Structures are given as C-alpha cells and as structure tokens.
Amino acid sequence: MPAAEPDFDPAWLDQYVLPNYGRFPIWPERGEGPYLWDSTGKKYLDFAGGVAVCPLGHAHPEVADAIALQAHTLIHVSNWYCIKQQAQLARLIVEDFVHIPGRCFFSNSGAEANEGMIKLARKYGVNTPLPDGSPRYEIVTFSGSFHGRTFGAMSATAQEKIHGGFGPIVPGFVYSAFNDIDALRSAITERTVAIMLEPIQGESGVHPATPEFLRAVQSFCDQHDLLLLLDEVQCGFGRTGDTCGWRSIVPGDEIQPSAISWAKSIGSGFPLGAFWVRDAEVRNPQSPIRNLIHLLGPGTHGTTYGGSPLACAAGLATLGVIKRDQLPSHSAALGKRIAGEVASWKHPLITDIRAFGMMIGFELDEATLNALPAVAASGKPASIWLAAQLIDDGLLVVPAGPKVVRWLPPMNLTEPQATEALQIFHNTLNRILQ
Ligand SMILES: Cc1ncc(COP(=O)(O)O)c(C=O)c1O
Q1: Residue 50 host element (H or E)
Q2: For site-directed labelling of 53, which of 64, 91, 189, 359 has its Cα 20 to 30 A away?
Q3: How many helices (H) and strands (E) does the chain have?
Q4: How many angstroms separate the CA atoms of 280 and 102, rounded?
Q5: What is the pLDDT of residues 126-145, one digit of tens each?
Q6: What is the pairing mode between strands 227-231 and 259-262?
Q7: DSSP sequence for 235-297
Q8: pLDDT > 90: percent of the chain
Q9: Phi/psi class of residue 348: alpha, beta or left (left: φ > 0; alpha: ψ in -120 to 50)?
Q10: How far apart are CA 237 and CA 52, in angstroms?
C-alpha cells in the first residue's frame, strides 16, 4: 500500500469509493508495454491488460502522441456537428477489420455498444412484424454470456448472478444453452427477432462457439429472418488471431453478422465502444425503412460523448498499429506457442487450455486446488487464489469464474516476454504443489 501524502491517503479508497469491486491490493502507478509498476516499485508482467483493453500494452508512444496531439487540438465537439475522426475510424473498421459493407456508431463502452445493437433489433422487429402487425421483439442469448451491466445488456446476459437483485429485468430476452443447436431451435418463436452471442465467451472462461453452432445460428437467422448480433467487445479487433473474432472459428464469409459490437481493444484504454450495422435490406417489402443502416435514423439513438475527436484519435492510432504491424497473425502464432508450451508441461493443476491468439483460458483442477489448506483458508475461489499467487510472483492474469485464469496480454507481445511469463506461471504452479 502506498504511503499517505498530504493530498492522498490510501484509506480514501475504502472511505469514499463504493465497494462494488473485489480488488487485489496493489496500486499500479506506471506502465510500459506489457510491464506495470506498482506504488512500491514492484514490476509485473501485465497479462490482464485491463481485461483485454490494452492491445498495444501500456503507454504506447503512437497512441499517447495521438491522444496528446488531439487533446491540444480539439477534445470534444457535439454530434450535432460532423466529426472527421469518426468518419476515418469507421472507414478503418469497415474496410480493414470487418471487410463487409456497413456503417458504425460510436459509444463509450461495451455495454452501451450492446444497448445499441439491442435497440437495432427492437427496431427491426417493428419493421418486420407478426402477421397481426405486432412487433417481433425476442432476442435469444446464451448461458455463460456476458454483455455488460446496463439494464439492457445485463438483461441480455444469461446469468442470474449478474441480474439477481435488480429485477424486474428488461423483458424480451430468451436464454438458451450455449453450443446446443436443439435448444436454440426450441428457443426460437414467431416473436424472435435476433440471436445475440459472443463468438468466444470471455467472462465465462474463454469458451468458443463451436463451428457447427455458429453455422446453425447463421442458418436459423436466414430461415427465420433474424438479426445475428455478435458481441466482440472482448474478442474483437485481432486479439483472437483474425481481424474478427468469429472468423477465428469459422474463417471467411460463411458467417454474415447483421451487427457487431466492440469496446476494450478499440481505444487502448481510452473509453470508446462501437457497433457496426450491415448494409443489407430489411426483408419486409412493406417496411418504410428499406435498409438496416437506416433503422437507427436521426433522433432514434445517440450519446453525448460517443465518438469524440479525442476518443476516435485513440481508436485510429490503436487500430492503425494493429493493422500496420499485422498483429492478428502475430497473436495467432504466439498464442499457439504459449498454449503448446503449457500443454507440454502436462501440469496436474491445468486440466484444459483454450487458446485463441492473445485470449487464452487455462482451466484449473479446482478440486485439487480447493483441497489445499491455503486455498481453503483464503475462502476464495481457486481462480482468484491462483491469480493472487501469480501477483506475488509478478504476473497479472484475470480470473474467469471459479476455475479459469485468463491471459489477455498485449497483441504486440514479444517471444522473450512470453517466455518470461511462462517461466513465472510454471514456477508458481510448481511452488503451489510443493
Ligand atoms: C463480451 C463482453 N461484452 C460486453 C462487455 C461490457 O463492456 P463494458 O464493461 O465496456 O461495458 C464485456 C466486458 O467485460 C464483455 O466482455
């Protein structure tokens, strides 16, 4: 814990800040690339990366310069006016990441990006109603999903632990079992208007949709005129080894999303989110709105801060480096090496490895860990206990559920930095079993 100073006392965090986060007791002060230093001067390899937020590591000079230059030029201007950086960033996303014609909206976070997609689906349902004229409105989402903490995104999240205590939640979401094609078939009704999913679930512990499941989702969407909404907030922009997360599962153009949401990696930590809407026709000839990109027309949706010149400058610099330095393919190769090396240890505490580029889930032998006196005494789930041990040894990772730790390192990680992290991980796992 840092020392008290005239204008700062560490006790203020508990005294003045709401206690909604379970925090590890370190106080990061400075970062550079994949490294972080805390208030005591201790150095860490940061493979939490702000939970998949820092694709270029900390303090990347090109991102920092772009933010500083834009801050000195124009930080914010209202969306009542035309914002050049929005146009540039939307073009970069469409042409160099999605590769499908469409348009973008800029938000401030992942949850807000998902809210926009949910509103898009509701509008689609109004424009493609049931035979009696009433709107279709149900959106199918999946067990283990996480879409954010705002009311719509929270209600879309098929986890009682996320919405418990906040009811009544927003109606219209139907939860189905992830990767279960028959369950999805039964979940679709005449009122269904969209299917929403993370191609690779992050918070549940790096669980990918299977290729068969994604293909089935696409075919149900085609068959029933449903929007396919992909939440790529955590897995987007190349982290998983392709410019789009879903293409690391089904390569090419077989999957045709109607909309995609992002945040996290897009701005290197500057608050920014976005969603993209496909340039595609509304399939009802009676609909006055003929194209998906016009469903959210003037006055239907907006936000004060979303897509400010400053936020978009951060996004342009970040995505520009990801593209120029071909970081998706670098991530794919390095992620494979990391997973291969951990697999070669055949370590008794690791029961499964799910690796998609720089998004890697290590599933732990929960029973063995929970049986250790130190874990039992801590009263913490195995994943959180292990993350604390790794912090002691200088490696930051993210727990996901009770038995998975995630590595979400920068996409520009080098081979020697990966080796350094692997050594810490291996030593910690061995130390635990001594
Ligand atoms: C897949 C996914 N969707 C949405 C969100 C919510 O994003 P935010 O915290 O920026 O609102 C997250 C955050 O972890 C996420 O992983």
Answers
A1: helix 49-52
A2: 91
A3: 15, 17
A4: 8
A5: 999 999 999 999 999 999 99
A6: parallel
A7: TTTTTTSSSSGGGGTS-TTSS--SEEEE-GGGGTTSS-EEEEEE--B-S-TT-S--BGGGSS-
A8: 98
A9: alpha
A10: 11
Q: How many CB atoms lie within 10 A of CB 133?
A: 8
Q: How many CB atoms lie within 10 A of CB 225?
A: 14
What residues contact residue 77 under an 8 Å CB cut-off, 6+ apart? Answer: 83, 308, 309
Cis check: omega of the bond before 168, within 30 degrees of 0: yes
Distance CA 224, CA 194 (A): 9
* CATH class of residue range 63-324: alpha beta
Return the CATH number of the domain spanning residue range 11-48+327-433: 3.90.1150.10
pLDDT at 6: 86
CB 139 within 8 A of CB 193: yes
Dist CA 315 CA 271 (whole Å)? 10
pLDDT in tens, 46-75: 999 999 999 999 999 999 999 999 999 999
Atom 8 (ligand 1): residue with closest C-alpha? 110
Q: How confident is the model at residue 24 (pLDDT cuts 50, 70, 90)?
A: very high
* pTM of the entire predicted model: 0.98
- Whether 11-48+327-433 shares its CATH topology with 63-324 is answered no
User: Is the distance from CB of 326 to CB of 332 less than 8 angstroms?
Assistant: no
Ligand 1 contact via 269 beta carbon (within 6 Å)? no
- CA 62, CA 220: separation in Å to the nearest integer? 43
The pLDDT score that the predictor gives to residue 3 is 86
Nearest ligand 1 atom to the CA of 109 is: 10
Q: Give residue 233 CA to ligand 1 midpoint distance, Å.
A: 6
Q: Say if ligand 1 is within 6 A of residue 108 CB.
A: no
For the chain, give the number of residues: 434
Q: What are phi and psi of 148, to 5 degrees?
A: 125, 180
Q: Is 31 in the pocket of ligand 1 (CB under 6 A)?
A: no
Q: Where are the domains of the chain?
A: 11-48+327-433, 63-324
